[in-house]
Every structure is written in structure tokens, then in C-alpha cells.
Amino acid sequence: MIQPVVLAGVPCVHLESASSVPGLSASVFFGSSHEAVTPLPIGVPVFIYASIPPHPLFKPGQYSWTGTLGSVVRAVESGPRAGKCPDPSRRPPTAEGKDGPALYFWEVQGLHQLATPRPLADFKSKTSINEVPRWPVVAELDI
After folding, report:
1. Which of 24, 70, 25 is nearest to 46 (CA)?
2. Most buried residue, 29, 72, 90, 117, by CB count within 10 Å?
3. Tell me, what DSSP letter sits at residue 81?
4. Cβ contact 32:106 at 8 Å
């Protein structure tokens, strides 16, 4: 059975930061500065590649984190928080303080490490085959 999923890369430091704040993994926002061409389907599994080594969480060639896509929201459009998440309390502290402006934020509910990481080759995507996506993309997983 083919299941739609969302694939994304997130820097290891942001995953570590999100998982270190009590309760944040229940609902955490990550940002993207790339305008999504295809709308992201809410409620599907998200598989996250922990990127930007060296870091203990880095697992080359594998998606090692997962959760469910809860929502996608536009960044604040103007003022001192332009390009930031509308709800900074739901951002990893490392991301909220240091990331540049984003266009939108995608919410991962139930963020956690996979017991067994999934290789990039398990997923089929029109935009990235066996490559780590630079922004969230819709893909397929044969389950």
C-alpha cells in the first residue's frame, strides 16, 4: 500500500533543542524559506533527516525522526517579527533565536526519533530521489 508522506531536512541542533524542552515535541514548528509548490497534506507522517553534521544525531543517508504534519502557517508578514513564527513558544530555542526569515512554518506533532531509521531509498519523490530535500516535499512510502 502506498502512503503519502512529507520528507524534510532539519538541522540536528534544532531537533536536539526541540527534544530538550519539556512538552515541545508534542507540537513543534520548523520553518522554510522556500515557497511550497505542492500543498503539504495535513495529517500525514513526516520523516525528518537530521542534517548538518558533525553531530551525534546525524545518521547519514537515513531519515531518523518522525511525527505527524499538524499544520502549515504563514510567517509573520510585517513588524519586528517579520519572517518569524506566529507562536515562538512552539519553536526550538536554537531556531527561534538564530534562524533567518521564513515564508512559512510546518508543525510536527509527536516529534520523536525512529527506533529504526529509514533509508532515503525507501521513499519516492518527484523532487528528490535519494537526496535529502532542502525544504518539505510530498513523497510516497510503500508500507
Report:
1. 70
2. 29
3. T
4. yes
